[in-house]
Amino acid sequence: MTTTATIDYDAIKGRQQAAWASGDYAVIGTTLQIVGETLAEACDLGFGDQVLDVAAGNGNATLAAARRGATVVSTDYVIGLLDQGRARARAENLPITFRFADAEALPFDGASFDAVLSVFGVMFAPDHATAAAEMMRVCRRGGRIGLANWTPDSFIGQLFKVLGRHVPPPAGLRPPSAWGDVAHLKSLFGDAAAITINRRVFNFRYRSATHFVEVFRNWYGPVHKAFAALPDPAAAQLAEEIEALADAFNIARDGRLTVPSDYLEVVIRR
Q1: Which of helix, strand or coil describes residue 119?
Q2: Residue 1: its pLDDT value, please?
Q3: What is the pLDDT of residue 23?
């Protein structure tokens, strides 16, 4: 007889919330703004559209949609990240609504939005099928779901593999980078939608691999928490492995660090 372990999604999300609330994600998040802008264009957002940003972080897709005249509700399950997005919206005088929400239990009626977006956000929800179903539920028929997801073979996908070797994820959990796998996306959204996928690249730019590790160790929640969980020798080894990974991906020839990381730009039409 074999048994299947039950995954405690609530406990996992509790740990994730603590991780993303640590550090200061905006230090990294604001550098990714171009991804939100290109996704907003891919989804053809404009005036009058009702838009939901799921797992919005500090609001890259939120701001991009609002800049195009959409009426936007920005959601996340980390209050500090919502506060960062709210400050950015206030600075640009953009009338955006911010709400605390779990991507796996969105507090909205079905078919409430013309477009549902997530930039490197919903991919971290532990229960992939439930999160995808929720995005489909709140998107009206004829609307679109826009996603930006790191691929498994990308720099960030490989970074999370390195982290996983030092701080193993819960057993049975699909990795976030699975959202960057075309077959997995089709299994999540199935025949209920037409899916358009473009492979794009974001370039991380830092002074050096050492500088990259320093920034991510201090400010990027999952990396910050991984280092905090390790004794000094193991933390030093993790730093060396991340530096080596960054150097391996580096395309700069001037002594600085330019690391391309592939992601899928996904537009799903209901």
Answers
A1: strand
A2: 39
A3: 85
